[in-house]
């Protein structure tokens, strides 16, 4: 059974930092892109960041560029999201996801339908 388990969420003041982790089990994701999405109350789930299977390409939604950094440790089958200079609008449940496209390097990583494995989510709350 494939599982993605996020951790690292919590309550942080605006301007602070958090590091989210997503540990995968049941299958290696070394040959698949990994992504982070988030969903705020009353809003649709949105793309945050992704890293290609080769770890060469990283992709971010505009609002987090320069503040968030995605990384992966294939030996640990784990992906991370370092979040700095957090803002109120970053408050959401954050989900990691595993891409269904093996060896994909097409540059499109922001579509929910391209991910077939999802974690349960971790809450990030930023207070001002």
Topology at a glance:
Elements: E1 3-7, E2 10-13, E3 18-25, E4 32-39, E5 46-51, E6 58-60, E7 68-73, E8 78-83, E9 92-102, E10 115-118, E11 122-127
Parallel strand pairs: 2-11
Antiparallel strand pairs: 1-3, 3-8, 4-5, 4-9, 5-6, 7-8, 9-10, 9-11
Account of the 3D structure:
The chain has strands at residues 3-7, 10-13, 18-25, 32-39, 46-51, 58-60, 68-73, 78-83, 92-102, 115-118, 122-127. The protein has 128 residues and is an all-beta fold. The termini are far apart.
Short description:
The chain has 128 residues and is mostly beta strands. It is 0% helix and 52% strand. Strands 2, 4, 5, 6, 9, 10 and 11 form a 7-stranded mixed sheet that branches. Strands 1-3-8-7 form a 4-stranded antiparallel sheet, with no helix packed on it.
Portion in helices = under 10%
Shape: globular
SSE pattern: EEEEEEEEEEE
**Terminal residue distance:** 40 Å
What's the assembly state of these chains? single chain
The averaged pLDDT comes out at 96
Structural class of the secondary elements?
Answer: mainly beta
The counted number of beta strands is 11
Q: Note poorly predicted spans.
A: none
Number of helices in the DSSP assignment: 0
Q: Work out the strand percent.
A: over 45%
Radius of gyration: 14 Å
Largest sheet: 7 strands, mixed
